[in-house]
Amino acid sequence: MAHGNFTQVTEFILTGVSERPDLQIPLFFVFLVIYGLTVTGNLSIITLTSVDSRLQTPMYFFLRHLAIINLGNSTVIAPKMLINFLVKKHTTSYYECAIQLGVFLVFIVAEVLMLAVMAYDRYVAICNPLLYMAVVSRRICFLLVSLTYLYSFCTSIVTSSSVFSMTYCSSNVINHFYCDTVPLLALSCSDTSVPEAVIFISASTNLVFSISTVVASYFNIVLSILRICSSEGRKKAFSTCASHMTAVSVFYGTLLFMYLQPQTNHSMGVDKMASVFYTLVIPMLNPIIYSLRNNDVKAALKMFIRNTCCSLNHSSFKTL
């Protein structure tokens, strides 16, 4: 990073979701509820898949890490966003902005790859059930998750470094509610062709690889399900995959819209809404989608609540 960046711009101003003063408090409560549900839902998934013996399978191991990623992604964005609804000056320091972008990229790239890993897991489970525990062993699970986080970290370093290697010397007002690549590129007074190329190549490579893996996996899954003679078996197999397919379709749709359109076609108002969706709404919806359509998770949740209530009642009885 050039020294000039620090002397010319030491802080940025975030415009937020809306600049209308009368909407700040209502929006604060709306996003507080969304973030609260996100934390509750994802912590529930993380806890249940960690403590319940019936959920100690590769599918739930990957689901736990998806919940960790969703929780991390929202937590990078939401607290600062909520604070800005309540204060007049929406400033963020140069370093804070760089850190937020870097950590956000780690989680968003990790989510893209984790969805591909989960699709591959479902493919092996349904298309090669006899080889499932051998192909998706505990060691392979740890390896896939470790590589996902490592690759995401490296991608984040390269992308965020390219964005913050540019010179910011005039306006420091970011037309967004967090530090993202597109609004930061719009502020630079230096040549943005290299960072734009890095972002486009990185986003397109990650999305094409992930979507190809998901499409290929589910194409083979559908073919396998259609070969099942029992209608009950087909229904169960489709039900197992429906939640993942729903979450994947919504998530990829918003990312493709955001990052694979030309820079000149970006509308920041529309981009903000898309960003709200994949940074805050989707992390809130994923635990609901996976738990409401999954009997194992629902049974584990009921058992966990029952055991917790029994423990509390027993503790209260002992105290009395």
TrEMBL record:
Subcellular location: Cell membrane; Membrane
Keyword annotations from UniProtKB, A to Z: Cell membrane, G-protein coupled receptor, Membrane, Olfaction, Receptor, Sensory transduction, Transducer, Transmembrane, Transmembrane helix
Mode of membrane association: Multi-pass membrane protein
Keyword Transmembrane helix: yes
Sequence intervals crossing the membrane: 25-48, 60-78, 98-120, 140-158, 207-229, 241-261, 273-292
Keyword Protein transport found: no
Record-annotated G-protein coupled receptors family 1 profile domain positions: 41-290
Function: Putative odorant or sperm cell receptor.
Protein family: Belongs to the G-protein coupled receptor 1 family.
Protein name listed in UniProt: Olfactory receptor
